[in-house]
Amino acid sequence: MKLNDIPTFDTAALRAKDAAHHLHPFTDTKGLNAAGARVIVRGDGVRIWDSEGHEIIDGMSGLWCVNLGYGRQDLVDAATHQMQLLPFYNAFFKTTTAPAAELATLLAEVAPPGFEHVFFTNSGSEGNDTVIRLVRRYWDVMGQPQRKTIISRHNAYHGSTLGGASLGGMSGMHEQGDLPIPGITHIDQPYQLQHGHAGESERHFGVRAASWLETKILELGPENVAAFIGEPVQGAGGVIIPPASYWPEIQRICDQYGILLVSDEVICGFGRLGQWFGCQHPHINTRPDLITFAKGVTSGYLPLGGVLVGERIAKVLIEQGGEFTHGFTYSGHPTCCAVAIANVQALRGEGVIERVATDTAPYLEQQFATLADHPLVGDAQSLGMVAGLVLYKDKTTRTLFDAELGVGYRCRDHCFKNGVVMRAVEERMIIAPPLVITHAEIDLMIARIRRSLDDTLASLREDGLL
Ligand code: PXG
């Protein structure tokens, strides 16, 4: 879009309309309405602009999804072309569409070996609801209908539908609406700051954290356990990077008890960790039976999600399962699939993921780690294109701020003011920038984060909190 084609926006009027009629997700509406929502109007590359003309580096890729960055004409063209030809047709009654068939084929090419089939949904939450139904159906068909329980982790995020929120381990979500639904249980997360012992090595902690799965399986009886689900790196939980010893041990335990392993790759898929899927990263290295995806499959340009179904499950369901009574109006939506095809072809054709692994992620890791010399900051770490740091009240004694002070939110507001989107999750500040970010843009992003940390420190001192 040319600069003089950009419309002007009446910020006050939009804020008033939004406050009057729009209920935002995960938002205290009263608080938001008092402050007024920031109106985002435009994006290009790794940058977004608000209605008042402020330029902001989008350190969160929208919501972990705009992997290719904003302003990709090829994705726009793919949508336009498909909308003109056939904006929608369904995949229910013995019909398919060209984009759905082509995308399914393309996904089988880029997926890890052994994934030949895909079930399409509109979101990650619907993907994980599909996971619940698929694993229970699989064990029914296998003649083990008592294998119902799915084990997940506290502080996991698997979506916001009843199924997704139940699989997730967010206590605040469980408190609203009597969740989790029956048949889902949680173990602790592999977060050493929270669960590590004094002097414990990272390796030892990873193995110990994985052993909580075995303990839970034995408590439930292995014959009753259907699956274990986890994000390779917990995203919304605060970019919790598990020790390298964690996932191989989880894999071993799942194998030992014949339990299905589900890798929720809604964030980690499509290049986020420098591999097509997070489970392929050497730090993770698992062989899942099911992979949930969404977000990066279209770089967020249109909603699409789904489940990659490994052959162990696909064979049984296809050969013996008959009708799987599950699906959505928009499963395999042709326009969303057309955009996903263009996105996957761009990721592949432009070598984006290889560049992340060999160049961009190592540079981000190096630059992000420099923040650890800031008086507020400890544990500044990244894996691929996700990174997180801890805000400490006293980093020498590893003392955290009182949660009620909301120091992370204070820091997040300074970040916005200084032109960078960074997300706050309790004591952690996190980023997941577009995969196409350049070294110069990383430098600028880190400089803006550092300035925001300085501003946070100054404001804490001014308020007598330090
Ligand atoms: N699984 C994972 C791992 C996710 O991160 C979902 C499932 C659900 O996807 P949908 O498309 O239904 O939203 C997600 C979504 C945050 C935030 O604040 C993260 C997500 C969604 C909204 C907010 O970090 N992740």
Q: Please, how many domains? A: 2
CATH topology heading of the largest domain: Aspartate Aminotransferase, domain 2
User: Bound compounds, please?
Assistant: 3-[O-phosphonopyridoxyl]--amino-benzoic acid
Oligomer: single chain
Main β-sheet description? 7 strands, mixed
> Can you count the helices?
16
CATH superfamily of the largest domain: Type I PLP-dependent aspartate aminotransferase-like (Major domain)
Q: What proportion of the residues is helical, as a percent range?
A: 40-55%
Structural class: alpha/beta
Name of the CATH architecture of the largest domain: 3-Layer(aba) Sandwich
Strand content: 15-25%
Beta strand count: 15
The radius of gyration computed from the alpha-carbon positions, rounded to a whole number of angstroms, is: 22 Å
Low-confidence stretches: none
